[in-house]
Design goal:
alpha/beta; 4 helices; single chain; two-stranded antiparallel ribbon; eight-stranded mixed β-barrel; about 30% strand
Length: about 240
Amino acid sequence: MLSCLVGLVLAGDALAAPVIPPETRQLVVGIAADWDSSRALVQRWERREEGWAAVGAAAPARLGRSGLAWGLGLHPVEDAAAVKVEGDWRAPAGAFVIGPAFGDAASVATAWPYRQVTARDLWVEDAASEHYNQHLVVTEERPLTDWEEGQRMRMGDPAHALKLAVSHNAAPPVSGAGSAIFFHIWRGDGAHPTAGCTAMERHALEALVGWLEPEASPVYVLLPEDTYRAVRAAWGLP
């Protein structure tokens, strides 16, 4: 169980340092019961003169089937044994810049960067590739190779009709440290966990995407409840 490793990670002073950038005015916070939970509550927050203020109601979400593991983002992590790896079925925990939105529709009601996914949009999950955990568009007018077909972003899948990138393992990507982490629409009305993404009810995800503002430099924080409490003040969280 990952929970036995958490004390090692939290033991260092590095986790007691601010991680939320001062320019961040929008925060999305997901709280899970523990490191092995596949469920969370996701709350939006806005930074105002008096501090963080909640926006709307908390929305239920599903996480990775095996729970959470430390991701690679804005936060420090001292114990490599507790870090997410490709295929571990765990959602990355920590603080992450929020990336662009993608979907089936030609456009969505948001000021946030959005791209309609085509048959030539790839998100590379091949850890051996120099383009691992990156979005690529095949611009050449030719049939896709078998490798490219295998990296295509999902089309025609209701759960991926709208998705929002989470910048885990992004700067630069570490081979095998986890790829293709998104917010997306949940399956079976929340009956099913994910492979590591944060899945939400469609209207809740639409509200989140529509709320995001580029000038607010939004960040996503996902943590187990006890860990959140331990780093809340130091990280500058609500």
